[in-house]
Amino acid sequence: MEFRLFGEVQLRAGGKLADVGTPRQQAVLAALLVDAGKPVPIETLIDRVWNETPPAEVRNVLYSHLSRIRRLLKDTARLERRPAGYVLDVPPGSVDMHRFWQLVEQSKDLSDTDKAATLAEALALWRGPPLAGVQGEWVDQVRDRWSRRRLDAIVQWGDVELRLGRPAQVIDVFRDLAAEYPLAEQFEHVLMRALHAAGRDAEALDRYTVIRQRLADELGTGPGPELQALHSSLLRGELPKPRRANSAAPAQLPPDVYGFAGREEQLGQLGKLERARIVVVSGTAGVGKTSLVVHWAHQVRADFPDGQLYLNLRGFDPTGTPVAPAEAVRGFLDAFYVPRERVPAGFEAQVGLYRSLLADRRVLIVLDNARDAEQVRPLLPGSSQCLVLVTSRDQLAGLVAEGAHPLMLDLLDVAEARTLLVRRIGAERVAAESEAVDEIIRLCARLPLALAVVAARAATHPKFSLAALADELREGLDELSGADPATDPRAVFSWSYLQLNETSARLFRLLGLHPGPDFGIRAAASMAGLPVAQVRPPLAELAGAHLVAEESPGRYEFHDLLRAYAAELAQGDSDRHAARRRMLGYYVHNGNRADRLLDPFRENPPGFPELPGHVVVESISDKARALAWFNAEYRVMLAVINQTHGFDEEVWSLAWTLRRYFTRRGLRHEQLSALLPALEAARRMGDPAKEAYAQCFIGSSHVLFGRVDEGAELLGVALGLYRKAGDRLGEGLVLQCFCWMLERENRHAEALKYAQHCLDVFRAAGHKPGEGRALNAVGFLHALLGAHVDALNYCQKAIDLQLKLGDSVGAAQTWDSLGLAYSRLGDHERAIVCHQSSVDVNRELGNRHSEAIALTSLGDAYKNAGDIESAHIAWQRAVEKFEQIGIPEADEVRAKLG
Predict the structure, then answer these.
(1) Are residues 630 and 850 in contact, defined by beta-carbon separation less than 8 angstroms?
(2) Among residues 341, 342, 365, 364, which one has the least CA distance to residue 353?
(3) What predicted TM-score, i.e. pTM, was given to this entire model?
(4) Do 69 and 151 fall into the same domain?
(5) What rounded mean pLDDT belongs to the chain?
(6) 397 and 437: one domain?
């Protein structure tokens, strides 16, 4: 039995959530659980639950609630009345709040490595502010106290992670905390240190600028002495240099396997092969290849101090779309924090860089679920210090012929199968019904996945006899003509599936239509056409039945075999088409809301699918939440784009929605991966405007990859399509891209002609945001060509219009152009002010590329004013920004630093 006070008050018993009653009854239960194992006087209970407004006969009402709580707990916990009050006698570790505090206290005496893991375990218990849905003064005090304890624990965790040299996750966590608590200097202090540890000093300095201004605006004060001292140390370069190797070592292994049993012989073989370069573990589906490899990898990870890489290659994914080697290599480069400007465009060059990175490192690489040798070969390091573990249903004879060590995994033997059941349902229960256990093992054909499914049902129904479960299973298999689970585990899946209630069974079928790699609870609710609250219980039932896995709070994934089985069942579902449409609607419309927050003055799409009924709309209310939503979902959206057929309008809309996010993050390859299917979808729809849009930004992507001629050709195609369709706004969009391309190529006179044409087009169309951005482009190019007075006039018109409209994105660009114009006219003071305004606005918007450009210009302005020290600081920050997003301008700015 497990009690949860973080988030909603919940009781989980036998793998299922119990009904804990009304908010008032939840308040009574919470008032007892907060002091679990201690007497709580009746007057204290009344005060906690009703504050100062108890009802008449309050004691009778309280006794009624206590009686219902006793019935709820049954024989699993005791609620006793003692002289000092009521005591809920449960182990403190069964209450998440007390377990949290136990772990925090335990962590104080541990080594840094164990302390980090223990604090992370404690923090993972947090599901939200305590006692959600319960109101009252005492409840507010509990929430405040435990929220502060959680924040203190997060700071402790961040400190120890930085001592271990692992800044990446610290940055993500504390960036979110700083957004949630914008005046909390302690979070900014940790975040700035983490950014420095990641080699991102420019961002750390930017954070200081932001918090200093925020404190001045909100409180009329400045940063405290600790933050000031950290800022000074950063500026003077006095902080220790970021640690390398172990400090940046990726640790990507999935959690160790619950209830792992047997395989002693194979574990021994792996131990003897630890000094090998490549091991191929093969066997039938569901035989436990991944479990074996992940379990052994956890045992030996200390032997690979430079990192552990893990990737599910999805070689036998039911959608038929294995991970491409190019995508896998880019993911591994990201794992080692390779700046994007160092990542070459060509695949072979990327593989070479990947192998160079591993040349002097000892890294464990797990390539799970490989389809064939061709998928694996590019991912093999050249270093003999690394070990690669490959799992596959295929024996990968080609790799074995080239020196890989084969390890065939067969079915469990009877003793191992029995041990697995003991680990999952308990030795006492297994010993009590030995014959039934033997029958279950026989019926499951000793296949681990099938045994795990049966064990899950037994564990969630502790009062069911194993003999009855064996009878159920036998009857289910007989209905399937005696199917052999060793070759067709669907027989066992079917048995488990048939035990589900109707709502859970329908959800399981519909989730089989989701392409993965994972899904959130709101996407699941949308597919089912249910409110989120109504989809939680069936998801919990599916997880309890081992039919889905909750990999992190609120996010789930399937085993390939289970997803294929669910998809097969869904083929007979009359609702499957509507479910797919709701799934697509969830990603399209929530993505659109997030995208609009990031750029309110973006172009409008040429037609957008209607929002289907019963789609969950996310509460995305600001830019930080918009970015967080995209960060969580963009890989899923890419999978949806590349694996969805028959929904061309939605596929195109998803690519359109993702484009600005990909540009913002510098995800060039991913942008192409989304736009190419969108182009095909537009062609099938016969929609020239949508085809033109895809051509335009595919062309722009080619320009970024250095394929300027190919990019220009595609931009020309897009321009022709827009003109043929009479779409003036689309025409202006392509002209902007042409102007940008020519300016990058230093063809300023040609670029000016396109900018002036673009201005005419937007004015004729009455599109004010486009007019403002075109005015800026004309002014900027005049400045580059030496017409500084004209530049100032155009840019001033642009900034006036953009400030009137509230177009922050456009204004950020124009401030930079104004700075250039003033600088060329010799007014260096105004130039610095304008460039700094551009830096500030771009930073607030999260536009890293534009911010890097503005920082470069700011450095130039400082140099022109004779302030060389400030110029170097700005240029250094620009270089770091460019490197983070992989834009080659970094080399040009680096040259300014000498």
Answers:
(1) no
(2) 342
(3) 0.58
(4) yes
(5) 86
(6) no
